Description:
Blueprint: E1 15-19, E2 22-25, E3 30-33, H1 36-39, H2 48-60, H3 71-84, E4 90-94, H4 97-112, E5 116-120, H5 129-133, E6 139-142, H6 149-156, E7 164-169, H7 184-196, E8 200-205, E9 228-231, E10 242-246, H8 248-256, H9 269-285, H10 287-308, E11 312-318, E12 321-326, H11 334-344, E13 346-347, E14 349-351, E15 356-359, H12 367-385
Parallel strand pairs: 3-13, 5-6, 5-7, 7-8, 8-9
Antiparallel strand pairs: 1-2, 2-3, 4-10, 9-10, 11-12, 12-15, 14-15
Helix pairs in contact: 2-9, 3-9, 10-12, 11-12
Amino acid sequence: MEHLLQSHKITKTDFIRGQGCHLYDEQGKEYLDFESGCWSTALGHSHPRINQVMEAQIKQVVHLGTYYPNRLAEDAATAVLEIVGMNDGKCVFLSSGSEAVEFAVQAARRITGKHLLLTFSNSYLAAYGSAGRKSADEWCLFDWSASTEAEQLERLNEIPFEKIGAFVFEPGGSGSAFVRFPPKELVQLLARRVKQEGGLLIANEITTGLGRTGKWFGFQHYDYQPDIVSIGKGLGNGYPVSAIAMQQELAEKLEHGGFYYVQSHQNDPLGCAIAKEVIAIFREENWVEKGNQTGLYFLEGLKWLEEKYEIVKEARGRGMLLGLAFQPHASFSATTAYFALLEKGFLAGFSPVGNLLRFDPALVIGKDEIDLLSKGLEQIFARLIE
Ligand SMILES: Cc1ncc(COP(=O)(O)O)c(C=O)c1O
């Protein structure tokens, strides 16, 4: 891989095929993918129905100029708005999660005229742009995880709510790489205060959307209605399509207020055909509820490991977004666990900072596959005790 820029860690370079929750390398070795690619193939790799739609659409038209969105974009928008609970709203389709969050951020600033936005300090919002930079002149960052409730209340008083254009909330837990879930009361309080002062609520559902946390969207655990929702990853089941859904009244403000945004792949028919089919499969086969049930089973297994092995500090999760945090140890960490799992044929996520393994498998994964992972983890932990 001497011509591939290493802008991040690369650990294996010979996967050539994927099927359901499995990946296969050049030697034909089978791996269980507990990260669903980059947390995206929610229905599994190479899904036959999605493949069929892609093949058919490729033969029709893949891409159209931005002046010419066709019926597929309207159909996909209707499907997205239905699952978000904004039936009268409006939607736009882009390619990546970063774009979908950045679009929402720009839209909120335009609608409210307020430049400053509020988010949790370690939430990941985008790879670039204002949402990626989170610079101090544009963002008010609130750290909920490192402070006590009393400290949080004190810090709440420091937020200039009257200047906040939007509260951008990532309901996968203030940096879903850490698998942490901010307290509902705090989120509701922040949402209420921002709304009272004329700001908007943006839900960043790039990771948490499409059933990842056991409901259609992560914000549904917090009992509030966002104004704008950014969706990515699972929406394309691995194909790069993202969406921004917003309430009708806000969309009209943008449309009549001279908001201009155009990108080459906006509302492309191939991405829209895929998004529409992904949502149809989710609905017809009830994957949100099924994924939730499997997630509960998964968490039970991880909790059992927490009880049995001292090295496990905490097992936590919501739906199919799960993590296993470790105690500090001289010769073991989440990184060593990651490589030991890879060796055994399991792909998991790992956060050296959080000393945590993370699991975001496809929602279609079976209990047998989860049991295999638990056994693999047990073997790794048992070796530490010997
Ligand atoms: C919570 C969250 N928001 C935004 C993004 C950015 O999405 P993308 O990598 O598709 O640009 C990610 C990506 O991992 C994410 O986890």
